[in-house]
Protein: ATP-binding protein
Organism: Rhizobium pisi
Amino acid sequence: MKEEASNFDDHAFAPMVSMEMNVGMFKSQWQFCDRITEYLSDILGQGHSDPARYSNFLSVATNELVELAFRSTGEPGRISFDLYRSATFNRLRIAFPCEEGSDREHARARSSERQPILGAASGYPVESDGTVPLANLAAIFRAAIRIEKDGTRGIQIIADFPSTEDFQ
């Protein structure tokens, strides 16, 4: 990525949408991942010359991050999905509770977890075990993706996607 994504507290980001739900409800049905992804991707596509193309392309990465949150949380509490926009980036932030005693090393380890294959015909780099590394997703989408500690009992996944439409 040519330009560094701003810090989360940067006031250049304007809120677009915020959605929150109980972790138990979220984890009760895998289909929530698809529904949340579709909703967030549609909003990310707004304001682009080809909104369907942009939202469809980013739905792949958004889905992987929503599914990562689905697999990573087991603690009671709330999970939130927030979208922000700046002049050059769209930001997705997913915050959820995690195991007590987690620290920054735990969050860093999760950021390198392997993700399920995106699809046999996707053309994305695939590891020998049929997975796509999170770092590869960041490279494919020219995004800054990081996982950080959120308070004392939480994790947040933050992904900054360039708002330009020159994806290949």
Observations:
- The helical segments are 23-28, 31-45, 51-72, 104-111, 134-140.
- Residues 5 and 47 are 20 Å apart (CA to CA).
- The first helix runs from residue 23 to 28.
- The mean pLDDT is 75.
